[in-house]
Specification:
single chain; Aminopeptidase; 6-stranded mixed β-sheet; 4 helices; binds coenzyme A; acyltransferase
């Protein structure tokens, strides 16, 4: 588990632009993973779970509530982007959530994040927004958009 948290933190540091203050610190990740309702996934550049000496290309972290699961973090390191790994990770999330009998996936995204087209192409649709939810390092406020995806 410690190794996996190292891998998550490594991708987190590379993937998330500090301007938007979306990245979690190690303590937040550790705390999230203490509970049985948290789930995560790691992938190498082939989209498989990385072996010991392989670099980690991407990850997600989610939390299940009653019949719903929230995607808390999704990241792919810049060196591995636009090769389908983000989509691969979302498909794994959807498959895992289905097995957990989840009915609906939820996530929150900063307005303007290019990830929106990925989410929409994977079946997510917007269900609401929180005005001025994010505060950037330069003091700019940005809305959060909530997306949902219904599972079979
Ligand atoms: C969002 C993110 C996970 C996408 O990872 P990825 O591996 O590059 O995604 P994919 O290669 O699977 O992209 C699939 C499709 O999504 C769309 N897409 C993904 N990134 C895009 C971008 N930056 N701009 C425009 N479209 C994009 C494209 O349609 C893409 O298909 P294409 O490459 O054939 O055009 C990655 O950019 C990332 O880690 N971003 C920073 C962290 C972040 O914002 N996470 C989401 C928080 S809500």
């Amino acid at each position: 588990m410690t190794d996996d948290i190292d891998r998550i933190m490594e991708v987190m540091a590379a993937a998330f632009d500090p301007t938007f203050r979306e990245a979690w610190n190690r303590r937040q990740v550790e705390d999230a993973l203490k509970f049985g309702n948290s789930h995560y996934c790691l992938v190498n550049e082939e989209g498989e779970w990385p072996q010991d000496d392989e670099p980690t290309a991407g990850f997600w972290l989610s939390r299940t509530g009653f019949e719903e699961e929230e995607l808390l973090l999704l990241g792919v390191s810049p060196a591995f982007r636009r090769k389908g790994l983000g989509r691969n990770l979302l498909r794994k999330l959807q498959g895992g959530a289905n097995e957990r009998c989840v009915k609906r996936l939820l996530l929150e995204m900063r307005r303007g994040n290019p990830a929106e087209s990925l989410y929409r192409s994977c079946g997510f649709y917007s269900i609401g927004e929180r005005r001025d939810y994010y505060l950037t390092t330069s003091g700019q406020r940005i809305d959060a958009i909530t997306f949902a995806c219904d599972l079979a």
